[in-house]
Amino acid sequence: MTIGDIIRIITGKKSDAVLEWLNSLPLTIKNPVIAGTYLTGAGVAQKLTHLPEIKNIRILDIYSHLNQLLDVSGDFKDENIIKTEQSKISFSTDLSQLKTGDMVMDTTGLGGIRQETIEELKSCKVFLVEDPSSDGSDRLIQAKNFTSSRLEASSAQHKATLFTSGLGSKTSGTMTLTLDVLRKSLNEVLKKEGVLYAVASLDFYEGILFKEKDTKKFLKAIQRPAMVVSSLNSVDMDIILIKYLEKISSTVLEE
Predict the structure, then answer these.
(1) CA–CA distance, 22 with 19 (Å, rounded to integer)
(2) How far is Cα of residue 182 from the mean position of the Cα atoms in its chain?
(3) What integer pLDDT is reported at residue 84 of this predicted model?
(4) Burial (Cβ within 10 Å: 0-12, 13-18, ≥19) of residue 207
(5) pLDDT on residue 183
(6) Residue 214: DSSP 8-state
(7) How far is Cα 168 from Cα 180, in angstroms, rounded to an integer?
(8) CA separation for the pair 255, 58 (Å, rounded)
């Protein structure tokens, strides 16, 4: 398994939860808008393309170079798939286009959309916020979590929170969860008999995207094997990694 595999599995859990909730609603969404590309936004957008009633999925982000992440649930190839005939996905840095969505999903985490902006979303029928906290969030992180106030600012008919937990992580961010899977797996494999040493591909991947602003380098970096072990006995690293991935669960909690 690579780092990219782990990211895909986690974003898949989040996307499946969103899709299941949308399918349970007594209305049809045609033009969803997602605020935030990295990484939940890209994963959810790809999942929404499977709904035939959806005409266009618009992703908004202030970082234009993140458009290459829109194949995040695929093979992480260095491709820009924006607005092709085969895709329902379009990308823009114009945040005013939030007003065009009959569904708005905020995946911007501890930053987030301003309450004043949310109050202006008059045509929004569904408003969904990804809660940046998780089951291990400390008091300072919780104090910076404005999920509740964002929901209160919305006049949408259906309002809900996407909550992800299971590893006792500080946040629900996909990269936070990915690195926690690596750390916990590393600790476990080091305890196995015959293991000489093990190395996890722990790195500051977000620095590549947001400091260096190099999407190609990021996409290449996450192709690394998640873990490498030197051992006298055979060790199946994937089994250990999957064990911790299976502890992660995502659910949509409607207000």
Answers:
(1) 5
(2) 17
(3) 38
(4) exposed
(5) 97
(6) -
(7) 9
(8) 24
Residue 83 is predicted with a pLDDT of 41
CA distance 80 to 68: 5
C-beta of residue 226 within 8 angstroms of C-beta of residue 6: yes
What residue segments make up the domains of the chain, in order of their start? Answer: 7-167+249-254, 174-245
Rounded distance between C-alpha atoms, residue 107 and residue 88, angstroms: 19
Q: In what order do the strands lie in the sheet with 126-130?
A: 89-92, 57-60, 32-35, 103-106, 126-130, 158-165, 249-254
Structure tokens at 15: 């996307």
Architecture label for domain 7-167+249-254? 3-Layer(aba) Sandwich (3.40)
Return the residue matching tokens 């590393």.
186
Q: Is the pLDDT of residue 74 over 90?
A: no
Helix 3-24 vs helix 237-245: crossing angle, to nearest 10: 30
Q: Could you give the CA distance from residue 41 to residue 14 in angstroms, rounded to a whole number? A: 10
**Token representation of residue 72:** 């995040």
* pTM score, whole prediction: 0.91
Task: Tell me phi and psi for residue 18, to 5 degrees.
Answer: -65, -45
How far is Cα 147 from Cα 113, in angstroms, rounded to an integer?
10
- pLDDT tens string 192-232: 999 999 999 999 999 999 999 999 999 999 999 999 999 99
